Amino acid sequence: MQQSIFNSFNENILPHHGEIRLYDHFFDSGKANFFFEKLQNTIHWKQEPIWIFGKKVMQPRLTALYGDPEKTYSYSGITMNPIPWTAELLEIKSSVEQVVEKPFTHVLLNFYRDGQDSMGWHRDNESTLGPNPVIASVSFGVSRNFQIRNYFDKSEKIQIPLNHGSLLIMQGESQHHWEHQIPKSKKVAGGRINLTFRKLI
Ligand SMILES: O=C(O)CCC(=O)C(=O)O
Ligand SMILES: [Fe+2]
């Protein structure tokens, strides 16, 4: 049986204002290996530009958006059209939904090819995600550090490794009060695929 999201084994990582919970071995290593290979080879990965302070820059990673066809997703000045769900993505989505007990409409995928690929500080607080979004983040491949800091007091910082097959759930006020990033690392060798399931309203 799947664990409930409110199970005490998966304690809230945040000290206040929102919830972030980690399920470290959500997928066993056999399943996680299968999904990493499959996604690496079949997802339509692209390197897309974004706008930062009025400047167009290439994102330091590959991305893709899959999901229900009728809605597009916009962030950092770009609009992405979803590609229809694949069998593997639907399988991962359904496992995650059994824990979260809420449906998702889209998944944003990130492929960090090596330690030089990264994602900068941000909050997932676009109005199309609703006021207190639930975001479920699945990781396959090499472990990368996930850093979280208080948006209003940047000295309050938390770091956790996101391992092969892990599931991280962010909800409540977390996207108002806290920002997150995947920093570059000289120590990392190998690729990592991350999927963030979202509900667009
Ligand atoms: O790669 C990760 O774990 C973070 C992804 C993320 O924050 C996002 O897609 O918004
Ligand atoms: Fe994010």
UniProtKB/TrEMBL annotation:
Keywords: Dioxygenase, Oxidoreductase. Pfam families: 2OG-FeII_Oxy_2 (PF13532). Signal peptide: none annotated. Coiled coil: none annotated. Residues 103-201 form the Fe2OG dioxygenase domain. SUPFAM superfamilies: Clavaminate synthase-like. The keyword Secreted does not apply. It comes from the Bacteria. PROSITE patterns: FE2OG_OXY. GO terms for molecular function: dioxygenase activity. The keyword Heme does not apply. This is Alpha-ketoglutarate-dependent dioxygenase AlkB. It comes from Algoriphagus limi.
